[in-house]
């Protein structure tokens, strides 16, 4: 049959069952609805909103949670290191750091013309991460359950491959 794939499956009685699955039409990769950038950004917004709904009761947005978690992983970061690690431009990083600094969760020192800006998580920031972690874990479990662990692992690997390939061009 044209446009169909046939799978053979043997049932428990030893009978061969033919399953016909309609194959999807080949996608036009030049069509706007198949734009890689548009679709990744759309999905990213949806995932961020989902995590935000879990985390907002702690007063931290998912982006800020990522910053705090990164700062907790290492004693001290400078602006360039953290920006590179997060894949975030410095302007966006500064915008997300301001409320964390204002609330005493992050300490920022240095700066000025030619000086490196150093950042570290405070004791209050570490306590905030402890309070936030169960909400993040809940969102993470739900997202991975929705996708399936193997599928998520494959997606994560594919995204990393794409990021590395596109950043080297």
Quickly name the level 1 CATH class of the domain at 60-129.
Mainly Alpha
Number of strands: 5
Say which CATH homologous superfamily of the domain at 60-129 is assigned: Winged helix-like DNA-binding domain superfamily/Winged helix DNA-binding domain
Helix content: 55-70%
* Strand coverage percent: 15-25%
Distance between the termini: 42 Å
Rg of Cα set: 23 Å
Q: Tell me the CATH architecture of the domain at 60-129.
A: Orthogonal Bundle
Largest sheet: 3 strands, antiparallel
Q: Give me the side-by-side strand order of the main sheet.
A: 3-5-4
How many helical stretches? 6
CATH fold-level assignment of the domain at 60-129: Arc Repressor Mutant, subunit A
Short description, anyone?
The protein has 169 residues and is α+β, with helices and mostly antiparallel strands. The protein is built from six helices and five strands, in the order E-E-H-H-E-H-H-E-E-H-H. The radius of gyration is 23 Å and the shape is globular.
SSE topology:
Blueprint (H helix, E strand, L loop, with lengths): L3 E7 L5 E7 L13 H20 L6 H12 L3 E2 H8 L3 H13 L3 E5 L6 E5 L1 H25 L1 H20 L1
Antiparallel strand pairs: 1-2, 3-5, 4-5
Helix pairs in contact: 1-5, 2-4, 2-5
Explain the overall architecture.
The protein is α+β, with helices and mostly antiparallel strands. Among the domains are: 32 residues; 70 residues, Winged helix-like DNA-binding domain superfamily/Winged helix DNA-binding domain (Arc Repressor Mutant, subunit A), CATH 1.10.10.10. The protein has 6 helices and 5 strands; from the N terminus they run ββααβααββαα. The strands form 2 sheets. The protein has a 3-stranded antiparallel β-sheet. Strand 1 and strand 2 form a beta hairpin. The N terminus is likely disordered.
């Amino acid at each position: 049959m044209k446009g169909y794939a046939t799978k053979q499956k043997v049932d428990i009685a030893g009978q061969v069952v033919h399953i016909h699955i309609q194959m999807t039409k080949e996608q036009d990769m030049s069509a706007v609805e198949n734009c890689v950038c548009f679709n990744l950004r759309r999905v990213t917004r949806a995932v961020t909103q989902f995590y935000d709904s879990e985390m907002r009761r702690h007063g931290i947005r998912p982006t800020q949670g990522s910053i705090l978690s990164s700062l907790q992983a290492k004693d001290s970061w400078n602006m360039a290191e953290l920006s590179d690690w997060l894949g975030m431009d410095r302007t966006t990083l500064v915008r997300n750091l301001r409320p964390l600094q204002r609330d005493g969760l992050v300490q920022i020192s240095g700066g000025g013309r030619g000086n490196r800006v150093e950042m570290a998580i405070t004791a209050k920031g570490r306590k905030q991460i402890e309070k936030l972690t169960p909400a993040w874990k809940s969102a993470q479990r739900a997202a991975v359950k929705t996708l399936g662990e193997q599928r998520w692992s494959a997606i994560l690997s594919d995204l990393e491959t794409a990021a590395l390939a596109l950043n080297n061009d």
